[in-house]
Amino acid sequence: MNTTPNQKRPEFRNIHVTQIVGYRLPAPGMVSILHRISGAVMFLFLFFVIWLLQLSLTSELSFLRLREFASQWWVKLVLVALVWALVHHLVAGVRYLLLDLHVGVDKAASVTSALTVFAISLPLTLLAALRIFGVF
Amino acid sequence: MSIGSKRLVVGAHYGLRDWLGQRLSAVVLGVYAVGLVLYVLLAGDLGYDRWAGLFAAPWMKVITLLALASLFYHAWVGMRDLWMDYVKPVGIRLALQVLTVLYLLGCAVWSVQVLWSV
Fold first, then answer.
1. Mutating which of A45, A52, A53, A94 best tests the B interface, going by the most B Cβ atoms within 10 A?
2. What is this structure's pTM?
């Protein structure tokens, strides 16, 4: 039996940054890396969120200033990004807690649950985005 | 932990504690976030008085303080894991970890001050 492969297949071990684009990540991998990215985004914008909380709580006047500030389109975009980060991080986090409890550990179930994370987080983010941009 | 009869494996022993702490703080944060979002969604037109009134209540201050403590612990463990996974040069990693701690401590002090100002 001929065991030598006809052609050298690509190997991905510790992939380098430059290989990321060509790397086919399965759904659980997408959930995982986005869990990290969403966490980092919330970390970086933490001071911004605390500042928003301060504006909302300090006085009637600062509350109105917050409303005015948040009516700008670029602030709305940042808010939508933060809502996505929170929702994805939360839903993916629930999935990880279930995995820790050995619920849905096999391959097929983990793909299904990963797709479920997107099926929940993306529509919720879309709803929030429509609300933030005043569609309803 | 012992491997064989002679070799003793030592370590800082913070692995399990951090692993468990990350999950407990996650549950606290998840419950707090969902609760707050539901309140805002169900409260209808939320003006300054009711919003500030919510955070002025002593029980809400205590709950929010617990959530904040969970948040800063959770963020520290998470960011430390990111730096440990992606930044290999020891000097740069240490610098980023120190900056992370300072940033989180600053945010922690500020957030508590904001919470107690109302």
1. A53
2. 0.89
